[in-house]
Structure formats: structure tokens, C-alpha cells
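Saturday, quiet lab. Running sequence design on the C-alpha cells for the scaffold JK sent over.
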């Protein structure tokens, strides 16, 4: 290269300019940790994966969500508490696990609350559902959306349960939820709250005789290996909730908050579409593995727990009022 020629340096300068333009202004990427207790093949995890993908796209890569499933960063309750301290950005919790943080979430623990799926989503997506999502903001927990967690059904290591009487005297694991504990007691069993991740061992060692959960969780937790009877009592339809720590939320710009909220809404709709198929597949899988799936007369279970509505309305009138509004929600 003859450096005395006026244009000799031009290609070099252009190359440098292209390289610099490629680097662009130094852009910082905000990384949000999202930890939860479910298996990565669970449809609720897939909802969160969709949230992460949508958020990356909306923010042009500026907001990145790293997922930590299977209780890697702690149990459901520990993750909720980490959000409160600001040590974790996001988690997904069952609304039952939130009852201790805001009483409003108890409403979803009322047995046989929804007449069907359309009613459930009308309530969750309507004014009352959106209000409950924000009920724990004062406790540093902001709900962004709901995920479908279907309906919950009993399973036991011991006897077949066909009627509520069959639960009499059994030790049933519940979530850490005052409503679940009351419901199990109303059905004549004794309630033992245990973290989801510890339940397999608790069933194996006979600490409890049974539990209750939706089909994908029953299947993916492998509880079906120990519990050979699954009774479709469908006693509650407790939704899951995607949560962000208010410590993190307040650090986001208004634009970033909008991206997060929009991505959550889109993931809610996406996850709902996955649910029924995942439930069908889980039931097929456990049947194939030799589990007896029992279709009971649900009205018998419903009669046993009907009195809970009056009791809750008397003890917690605000929750009673929410229950009335949920029941009146129309698609
Ligand atoms: C459901 C729910 C989980 C919850 C679990 C439980 O699977 O989706 O969030 O942890 O129930 O029974 O604890």
C-alpha cells in the first residue's frame, strides 16, 4: 500500500467505521431471574418461557429473563420471600401460596368456586381478577398475569377414594394455604402442609397418605409412582400467578414496565392454550403407567364443603364480597 496516495487509507478507515457501527453505543442488558418450583416440561413453565421470549423481542434484547425451574433457587415460599427482599426478580406461585401474603387470594381456594372454565377465565381476566393480582403490592409482590393450573384432584398411597367418606382419617398434604387446610378438614381428613418439592419423599416415607393436584403436576412430580388412585374430584381450580418484586418493578422505566406487562399478558393467553392438551396427555400417561383414574360423583364432595362459603363471609367479609363478585363474573 502506497501511503503517499491520498486515498490509500480509505479502506482501512471504512473498515474501522463499520466495525464501530457494529458495536453501536454500549447497550446494557438487564437480566431478570425468574425462579419457580415446577418441572421445565410443565405447561406453566412453558408459559414463562414464552414470557421470556416475548420480552426479549419487545425490548430488542435489553431485558433478558433467565429461568430457574425445579426449585433450584428455593421452594415456592422461599422464592416469594426472596422477591420481598429484592434478592430475586420474579417467581411464579400458586395463588394458594399467596394467601398468607394477601387475604384476597383466599377467594380462589374456595372449593367449587367456578361453574366451568369459561366462567373461571371471565373472572380472572375481568375486573375482580385484575384487582386480586395487585392485592399483595404492599407486600412487595406485584402479580402480572395468571397461568392456568386446571383443577385439583385427590390421590392417595392407600385406599381408593370414591366418596368423601373414603378420605376419613387420611393424612393429606396441602399447600401452605389456610383455605386448603380448611377444605381438607371439612372433608374429614387431616391436613399437613408440606412444600411441593418435599412431597415425593413425604409420600414415600408415609409422612402423609395422599395429596391433591392437577394432572400435569401429578404426572411430572412422579407422585403417581406412589399413588395409584387419582380421583377427579375437581374440588378447586387454583390459578398460578406470575409475580415480579416491586423492588425490581420500580427500577424499570415506564417503557420497560409496559413491555413486561404486555409480554406477561401474551404469555397468559399462550399458556391457556397449552393447558387442556397437557392435561389430557398427563392423564393418558398415568393411566398407561397403571394408575386408576376415578370419576366420582362430585356433588358429594361439594355438599361437604358448602358451609365454607358462609364461614368465610362471616370471618372475612372482604373475601366473601370478592367471592360474590367472582361468582357473578360472566364471559
Ligand atoms: C400446582 C401449582 C404449583 C404448586 C403446586 C403445589 O402444581 O401449579 O405452583 O406449587 O400445585 O401443590 O404445591
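Result came back. Writing it out in full:
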Amino acid at each position: 500500500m502506497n501511503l503517499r496516495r491520498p486515498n490509500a487509507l480509505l479502506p482501512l478507515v471504512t473498515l474501522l467505521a463499520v466495525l464501530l457501527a457494529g458495536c453501536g453505543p454500549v447497550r446494557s442488558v438487564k437480566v431478570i431471574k425468574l425462579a419457580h418450583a415446577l418441572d421445565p416440561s410443565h405447561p406453566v413453565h412453558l408459559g414463562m418461557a414464552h414470557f421470556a421470549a416475548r420480552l426479549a423481542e419487545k425490548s430488542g434484547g435489553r431485558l433478558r429473563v433467565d429461568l430457574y425451574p425445579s426449585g433450584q433457587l428455593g421452594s415456592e415460599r422461599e422464592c416469594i420471600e426472596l422477591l420481598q427482599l429484592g434478592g430475586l426478580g420474579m417467581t411464579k406461585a400458586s395463588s394458594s401460596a399467596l394467601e398468607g401474603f394477601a387475604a384476597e387470594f383466599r377467594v380462589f381456594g374456595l372449593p367449587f368456586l367456578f361453574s366451568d372454565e369459561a366462567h373461571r377465565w371471565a373472572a380472572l381476566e375481568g375486573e375482580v381478577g385484575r384487582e386480586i393480582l395487585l392485592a399483595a403490592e404492599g407486600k412487595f409482590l406485584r402479580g402480572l398475569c395468571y397461568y392456568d393450573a386446571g383443577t385439583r384432584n385427590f390421590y392417595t398411597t392407600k385406599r381408593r377414594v370414591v366418596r368423601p367418606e373414603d378420605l376419613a382419617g387420611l393424612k393429606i398434604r396441602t399447600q401452605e394455604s389456610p383455605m386448603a387446610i380448611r377444605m381438607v378438614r371439612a372433608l374429614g381428613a387431616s391436613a399437613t402442609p408440606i412444600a411441593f418439592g418435599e412431597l415425593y419423599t413425604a409420600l414415600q416415607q408415609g409422612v402423609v397418605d395422599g395429596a391433591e393436584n392437577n394432572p400435569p403436576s401429578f404426572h411430572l412430580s412422579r407422585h403417581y409412582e406412589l399413588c395409584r388412585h387419582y380421583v377427579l374430584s375437581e374440588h378447586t381450580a387454583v390459578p398460578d400467578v406470575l409475580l415480579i418484586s416491586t423492588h425490581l418493578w420500580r427500577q424499570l422505566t415506564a417503557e420497560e414496565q409496559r413491555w413486561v406487562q404486555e409480554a406477561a399478558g401474551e404469555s397468559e393467553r399462550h399458556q391457556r392454550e397449552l393447558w387442556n392438551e397437557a392435561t389430557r396427555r398427563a392423564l393418558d400417561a398415568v393411566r398407561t403407567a397403571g394408575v386408576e383414574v376415578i370419576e366420582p360423583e362430585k356433588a358429594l364432595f361439594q355438599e361437604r364443603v358448602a358451609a365454607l362459603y358462609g364461614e368465610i363471609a362471616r370471618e372475612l367479609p372482604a373475601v366473601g364480597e370478592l367471592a360474590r363478585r367472582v361468582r357473578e363474573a360472566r364471559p
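Notes for JK: The mean pLDDT is 94. Residues 37, 44, 76, 94, 149, 175, 196, 213-214, 217, 240 surround alpha-D-glucopyranuronic acid (CB under 6 Å). Ask whether to fix the surface positions before the next round.
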